[in-house]
């Protein structure tokens, strides 16, 4: 299954979390989120865990790729 990817790089909190929240509402099985700062990474990780998703984080250069799956 190909996950929908949300590009939240260059955005400051809470925007990446709000984008993630909206995306999982439309893609309940899971999504990928790209962010470029640690605060957004931590906040999305927390949101995903609290929402019942398994969250995986991978560093890709200066960016973080978060994968949220049910």
Automatic annotation (TrEMBL):
SUPFAM superfamilies: SirA-like (SSF64307)
Transferase found in the keyword field: yes
Name of the protein this chain belongs to: TusA-related sulfurtransferase
Domain named UPF0033: residues: 6-30
Alphabetical list of PANTHER family matching this protein: SULFUR CARRIER PROTEIN YEDF-RELATED
Matches recorded under InterPro entries: TusA-like, TusA-like_sf
Tagged with keyword Transferase: yes
GO MF, one example: transferase activity
Assigned protein family: Belongs to the sulfur carrier protein TusA family.
Keywords: Transferase
Superkingdom to which the source organism belongs: Bacteria
């Amino acid at each position: 299954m190909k996950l929908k990817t949300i590009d939240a790089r260059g955005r400051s909190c809470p925007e990446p979390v709000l984008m993630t929240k909206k995306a999982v509402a439309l893609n309940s099985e899971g999504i990928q989120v790209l962010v470029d700062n640690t605060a957004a990474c931590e906040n999305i990780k927390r949101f995903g865990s609290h929402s019942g998703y398994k969250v995986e984080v991978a560093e890709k250069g200066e960016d973080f790729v978060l994968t949220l799956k049910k």
